[in-house]
Design a protein that fits this description.
With 458 residues, the chain is mostly helical. It contains 19 helices and no strands.
Length: 458
């Protein structure tokens, strides 16, 4: 790689790690947060979903802003905002302040991921782009999966509050690298931002998620449940209708005319919804149900991290040669098998025989899936729209996780005990299987370009 390409890749990885790492650190911090601040399962759900609501809804807006005003500027805004919100989380005196700060953190995080991937797709071309995306995928996903271990160490040795300050160092490094990169000329000065659409999307998701989280406490017949649920659905439908008519939509529906783009996003919804459910269920149950420390619960994710580091770049290269369909079908199916292996967890708990085999298989499936999935989706769209295409895909993944976490009480039967953990494992396997089926039926491998006879000597 040239010096600028390495710089771009380093910035993209670090900026994305900031957003992804925090999203999984919280899973092992939840029991400690609940012990100190109270609120039970509902507070734990809101600590996760407040972040995902703003991240999932505003990431679409951020993609448009990134294309309009430049990726470097948007990254700077996101990094500074994320740092401020992280400090507010660490200082939160009660659940309400914590949840508000988590929402602010998600809003800042929304500006990081689409701009990071757009920097890669606008800098690298052809096979180099596939390799760069593979490296980005390996490092960011490994950081995501390592989050529970890092968070567990902070929770056990210091406090859950310090776990949210870990991002300050990579944020500082990334800001320095952005200064070295210089200005970003890849922008569309004629673009307009759909602020009304962003508002409809955010309020629609927020109202619907509120209803799903609070439903076990109040019941479906309570007006405090069905009213916001209906309102949320109506607002989100209005958002979609506006995207058909506004001049500069934050969710360009014409992107979904590309087969691999819309199919890949459907698969993304199933796979990342399952990932969110698995991460939360494993992180919380291993502490509250199996009695492990936060550090040991975090160690459960280590096999998947190792698999991602070792295999993602190689899988990305292979997928670039033979196409993504095989990997996007096989990977989720393997993860489904790994999830079902967690059904062996029983009252006589053993990590080595009941958890480790499933996590190893799950990590193998994840390594097979993620890089080809990202490449297939972004490869279906022209490079100049990489920012919004990346934003849409990331929004789909975050909203999928948001909805599944909001439905956690329904999935596990009201409590994350052993029976609830088994239900979560079955639901995870079902979602992964759906992702495999969608990929097999819908994804098409790109046509191979015929070699140039003059260049091959033919």
């Amino acid at each position: 790689m040239a010096v600028r390409e390495r710089l771009v890749l380093g910035i993209a990885v670090l900026a994305s790690v900031v957003a992804f790492l925090d999203g999984t650190i919280v899973n092992v911090a939840l029991p400690a947060i609940e012990r100190e601040l109270g609120g039970g399962l509902v507070t734990q759900q809101w600590v996760v979903d407040a972040y995902l609501i703003t991240l999932g809804s505003l990431i679409l807006l951020a993609g448009s802003v990134s294309d309009a005003y430049g990726r470097v500027l948007v990254l700077r805004i996101g990094l500074i905002g994320f740092a401020i919100a992280s400090v507010a989380i660490a200082a939160a005196p009660d659940p309400l302040v914590l949840i508000i700060a988590r929402a602010a953190q998600g809003a800042a995080g929304a500006f990081l991921v689409p701009s990071s991937l757009a920097l890669i797709t606008s800098t690298f071309r052809d096979a180099a782009q596939g390799r760069a995306i593979g490296i980005w995928t390996a490092l960011t996903t490994a950081a995501t999966i390592a989050g529970p271990l890092v968070g567990g160490l902070f929770v056990d040795l210091l406090s859950w509050r310090f776990a949210f300050l870990i991002n300050i160092v990579p944020i500082g490094i990334t800001l320095v690298l952005l200064h070295r990169l210089g200005p970003d000329n890849a922008r569309r000065p004629d673009a307009h931002i759909d602020w009304l659409g962003a508002t409809l999307c955010t309020l629609g998701l927020g109202a619907a998620v509120f209803a799903l989280i609070e439903q076990p406490n109040l019941g479906w017949s309570h007006p405090g449940i069905w009213a916001p649920l209906i309102l949320g659905i109506v607002l989100f439908v209005l958002f979609l209708l506006r995207q058909r008519t506004t001049r500069s939509p934050i969710l360009p529906l014409d992107l979904f005319r590309a087969r691999n783009f819309w199919t890949g996003n459907v698969a993304t919804a199933f796979v990342y919804g399952a990932l969110a459910l698995n991460g939360l269920a494993v992180g919380v149950y291993l502490q509250q149900g199996a009695g492990l420390s936060a550090t040991l619960a975090g160690l459960a994710s280590l096999p998947a991290t190792v698999m991602m580091v070792l295999l993602s770049s190689r899988i990305g290269t292979l997928a670039g040669r033979i196409g993504p369909r095989l990997f996007m079908t096989l990977g989720p199916a393997v993860m489904a098998a790994g999830s079902l292996l967690l059904l062996s967890v029983g009252t006589d708990f053993s990590y080595w025989t009941q958890v480790l085999p499933g996590m190893v298989v799950f990590g193998l499936g994840l390594a097979i899936t993620v890089s080809p999935l990202t490449s297939a989706i972004l490869g279906a769209i022209e490079p100049e729209r990489a920012g919004i295409a990346s934003a849409v895909n990331n929004a789909v993944s975050r909203v999928a996780g948001l909805i599944v976490v909001a439905m956690l009480a329904l999935i596990v039967g009201g409590a994350l005990d052993l029976d609830g953990f088994h239900r979560a494992a079955i639901a995870t396997a079902a979602l992964m299987t759906a992702g495999a089926v969608v990929s097999f039926l819908g994804i098409r491998n790109p046509a191979r370009t015929a070699p140039d006879p003059q260049r091959t000597g033919g």
